[in-house]
Every structure is written in structure tokens, then in C-alpha cells.
Specification:
Elements: E1 3-5, E2 10-11, H1 18-33, E3 37-38, E4 46-47, E5 49-62, E6 68-80
Parallel strand pairs: 1-3, 1-4, 2-5
Antiparallel strand pairs: 5-6
């Protein structure tokens, strides 16, 4: 296996473009940390499919003017390679 295709992760979240942003981050990590090359579906040896099943975002600390300073984001993802 030398090439992989990563279609945009499915997401039922109300957060806009969450699936697209996670897919972009996964593709960058694959290309930086593995010997695999990310390619289109017609040229791929294998496919990595993902789906965001749950997401939670909460404020941990705020500034004196009540603006968020630290946030926590948790994602639950199902992936099949």
C-alpha cells in the first residue's frame, strides 16, 4: 500500500464544516507522519472513511470581560481503513 484516499468525513453536527476541517487535519497528519500519499479515489490503493458521531465544545475559563480564554473540544469519530 502506497496511496490512500480520504473522503470528507460525515458529520451530523450543527457546527459548520466540522467534517471538512477534520478531514483536512487527518490528511495533513497522514502525509507528515506516514509514508503514504493521499490521492483521489481512482488512484488509491486503500480508502480511509470517517464519521463524526458526537462533538462537545465547552468553555473552561473566561477573561474578566466574559470572553472565552480556554476551550475544550471533544470529538467521537468512527473510522474504517
Amino acid at each position: 500500500i502506497h496511496t490512500v484516499h480520504v473522503p470528507i468525513f460525515e458529520s451530523t453536527s450543527f457546527r459548520r464544516q466540522l467534517g471538512e476541517r477534520l478531514t483536512e487535519a487527518v490528511v495533513k497528519e497522514i502525509e507528515q507522519r506516514t509514508p503514504f500519499k493521499v490521492v483521489g479515489p481512482q488512484d488509491a490503493d486503500t480508502v480511509l472513511v470517517g464519521r463524526i458521531t458526537n462533538d462537545v465544545k465547552r468553555v473552561l475559563t473566561v477573561t474578566p470581560t466574559d470572553e472565552p480564554r480556554d476551550l475544550e473540544v471533544r470529538l467521537r469519530v468512527e473510522a474504517t481503513w
